[in-house]
Amino acid sequence: MSKKINLYWYQHKQGYGNFGDELNPYIIERLTYKKVKFINIKYLFDDRWLAFKTISKAILRKEINVFTYLQYIFYNFIKMPEVLLVIGSILETSNSSKNKIWGAGFISSKTKKVSGTFYAVRGLRTVQKLREMGNNAPDAIGDPALLLPIIYQPKVKAQNKIGIIPHYQHYLELKDKFGEEFTVINLLDPIEKVIDEISSCTITYSTSLHGIIVSHAYQVPSLWAEFPGLTFTRLVGDNIKFFDYFSSVGISDYSPLEFTNLEKDCFSRVITNELKSNLLPTFEMIQKRQADLLLTAPFEVIDKYRSIERYE
Predict the structure, then answer these.
(1) pLDDT tens-digit map of 33-85
(2) CA distance 132 to 136
(3) Of 73, 199, 246, 304, which residue is 20 to 30 A from 238 by alpha carbon distance?
(4) DSSP class of residue 279?
């Protein structure tokens, strides 16, 4: 059995994980043909005293058991593991210089410190932020979710469907209100089901960043949307993650489209000439990001994906 790859991603406590987060093990296991081992980097620190305090508080609060406590004491004081950070706004959690960043970004522009080795990051906003903090920023940018089409081909063909891709907190409310009129996609469903549903649409409107990214990866036009009045309207962060991704694929910054009353003809009205250029990156741009990511991967990619000529 090949050695497992240490990987961190945000995990939900029950049910399927959130789509963008669960893409981490899905993509890495297929690119490498190796299993991944989850390691929680929020308990890993270059500062050993801070590590001890954090881990001790975690066991006192019953967030971790004794075995996990001893495991992370070993990691911090004897042998710090190298952990891969791939997809998500998770850089704020990286406090170990042994972490390997390949595609991740920030959740907030207010972050003041991050540790790790940077092979690729999500976009130019992350590059800029790293330089401001004095980190060595990489040249390669791109969200590894853009690699999905070389790993998985959908089992459905595009239909004349409008897709709504809400953040998982918004799914039930939007499904209840608009499920008969539109395809409302649940990002807590299995990954390949989500990809199939996205690929069946002619256009998607997404409150979720990875709803937009995966739409673009499969050449489905997509726009950032918001639905005012939803129960959960305030999500974590300050939207830097959207602008970060846009910068990586040549899309100009724009504010999310706000929909209050959804009717089919309202979608065609809101797509102005200015927004049309934001619907879909060029295929060549997607290929460039794919090639950059494969070239900078800090792990061995299997032969069928290692040659990037097909993406250039």
Answers:
(1) 999 999 999 999 999 999 999 999 999 999 999 999 999 999 999 999 999 99
(2) 10
(3) 199
(4) S
The per-residue DSSP string of 149-194 comes to HHH---SS---S-EEEE--GGGHHHHHHHHTTTSEE--TTS-HHHH
Contact 83, 96 (CB under 8 A): yes
136-151 pLDDT, tens digit per residue, is 999 999 999 999 999 9
pLDDT by residue (tens digit) across 95-136? 999 999 999 999 988 888 999 999 999 999 999 999 999 999
Sheet with 183-184: list strands edge to edge. Answer: 183-184, 162-165, 203-206, 222-226, 257-258
Backbone φ/ψ region at 195: left (φ over 0), alpha (ψ -120 to 50), beta: alpha
CATH fold of the domain at 147-281: Rossmann fold (3.40.50)
Residue count (the chain)? 312
By the 8 A CB rule, do 292 and 142 touch?
yes
- Spatial separation of the C-alpha atoms in residues 265 and 277, rounded to whole Å: 20
SS3 257: strand
Residue 308's pLDDT band (cuts 50, 70, 90): low
Q: How far apart are CA 120 and CA 100, in angstroms?
A: 9
CB of 62 within 8 A of CB of 69? no
Residue 253 DSSP class: P
Each domain of the chain, given as residue ranges in start order, spans 5-145, 147-281
The residue behind tokens 């918001």 is 226
Q: Is the dihedral of CA 199, 91, 7, 43 positive or negative?
A: negative
- What is the SS3 assignment for 53? helix
